[in-house]
């Protein structure tokens, strides 16, 4: 496993819209009681995935190789950690080119399971098949029916993309062949207005007629 080396612009991330993480938790929640478990997002960025995870799990460990100033718990390289913490579930949107390394590291450190939010094309590689899928078959591949819009450097509810994304899940308690499921349309149900920062062109809030103490 090669040490993770980051190009200068790699810290400009493509955050996962929170509703896509809630879709996974709703899916897992039908099979696993999440409220007593600890989740980890080791590529947490600006916490757009960690925050919705905290709505379902007892606690969330948010870490990343870079400090994005959003209040993450740890600044460390998940592939070469300074601490050997464990979590019940490791759930993350890994850097695409390091998805294999993240998957193998997560499977070694997660107690109950792993879920990766990843491009559909990530399933195609012969190398990933030989090193990961043939050795550790996922328990579930969950394909979004709706497109999940990821935009570099921000979350944008108005964005439109052509890329298809899936959740690839390894539930360590599951014994059986890999299942394939569609994630039915759920954005309207799971998306919230406060998931997104205020738009830069939004009208400023009206000032109160009578302010508080200076």
Automatic annotation (TrEMBL):
Q: Which SUPFAM superfamilies match?
A: S-adenosyl-L-methionine-dependent methyltransferases (SSF53335)
Which InterPro entries did the record assign? SAM-dependent_MTases_sf
Q: Which domain of life is it from?
A: Bacteria
Q: Which protein, by its recorded name, is this? A: Methyltransferase
Its lineage opens with: Bacteria, Pseudomonadati, Pseudomonadota, Alphaproteobacteria, Rhodospirillales
């Amino acid at each position: 496993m090669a040490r993770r080396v980051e190009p200068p612009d790699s810290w400009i991330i493509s955050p996962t819209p929170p509703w896509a993480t809630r879709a996974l938790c709703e899916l897992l929640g039908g099979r696993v009681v999440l409220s007593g478990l600890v989740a980890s997002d080791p590529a947490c960025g600006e916490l757009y995935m960690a925050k919705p995870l905290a709505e379902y799990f007892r606690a969330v460990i948010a870490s990343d190789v870079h400090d994005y100033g959003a209040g993450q718990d740890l600044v460390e390289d998940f592939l070469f950690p300074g601490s050997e913490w464990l979590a019940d579930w490791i759930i993350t949107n890994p850097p695409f080119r390091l998805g294999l390394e993240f998957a193998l590291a997560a499977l070694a450190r997660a107690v109950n399971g792993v879920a990766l939010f990843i491009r559909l094309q990530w399933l195609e590689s012969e190398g990933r098949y030989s090193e990961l899928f043939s050795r550790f078959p996922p328990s579930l591949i969950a394909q979004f029916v709706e497109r999940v819009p990821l935009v570099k450097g921000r979350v944008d509810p108005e964005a439109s993309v052509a890329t298809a994304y899936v959740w690839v899940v390894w539930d360590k308690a599951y014994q059986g062949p890999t299942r394939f499921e569609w994630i039915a349309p759920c954005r309207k149900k799971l998306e919230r207005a406060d998931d997104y920062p205020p738009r830069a062109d939004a009208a400023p809030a009206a000032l109160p007629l009578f302010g508080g103490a200076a």
